[in-house]
């Protein structure tokens, strides 16, 4: 009789563990909206190196892009893979344009966007954020034969022509801080922004340091203008330079699961992963 009771107790324990679901991180996918199938669907541009880009094969750990013959890679992809590995989820990458990222999360079309987006209060009104998963700083890029190439602070850019990518703090918050700047129409994408800087010595662009560092490999004619410590730098808040992972408003279970992994990493870990992404990014568009 005791043996039978012991077997029954063991069976109950096994069933209890099975009911907990559980991937590698011990999370119950059924309790996380959108994760009932155990798949984390992540949207990104796949055109924003070194954060994310598209390539023709699965080299360097690239992941297939859904409904595409191409593969996604970059900092965002490697971070998404690590988050999924920690939680026992499968990863699905969706390619979409920048302006569709937040609306797609709002509607539930994607579980998350991991796409180099700042955790601004404006975005937080419509989505929730996990993270930060990177801390970015703001810089400028100009051609090395441009009159802006030797700029030491914002004052040296005064009156200049400039642009940046649409829908970013670079364009909406940073460029207006330059005195008498001629702010041109924004570009639709980061690659278009970088091409504008590389092809025109009469303009400069504003971006973040990882994007600029990647650009220097693709466009050696560019120089990076970093005014940190000069006393004449861009004024930005933490929310504008903290890069986060957007999820649907109210999906605290998913935020908590992602943050549980991110909390094990440091800023040095983030930077090391970004340096790796920069080193393997495509050198041309």
Defining key terms:
285 residues, five-stranded mixed beta sheet, 10 helices, disordered N terminus, alpha/beta, globular, D-Maltodextrin-Binding Protein, domain 2, single chain
Number of domains: 2
The first-to-last residue Cα distance is 73 Å
Reading the helices and strands in chain order gives HEEEEEHEHEHEEEHEHEHEHEHH
Q: What would the average pLDDT be, to the nearest integer?
A: 89
Task: Tell me about the largest β-sheet.
Answer: 5 strands, mixed
By CATH, the topology of the largest domain is D-Maltodextrin-Binding Protein, domain 2
Spans where pLDDT lies below 50 across 5 or more residues? 1-26
CATH architecture call of the largest domain? 3-Layer(aba) Sandwich
Helix count from the secondary structure assignment: 10
Give the CATH class of the largest domain: Alpha Beta
Give, in spatial order, the strands making up the sheet with the most strands. 6-1-7-14-8
Helix content, binned percent: 25-40%
- Spell out the CATH superfamily of the largest domain: Periplasmic binding protein-like II
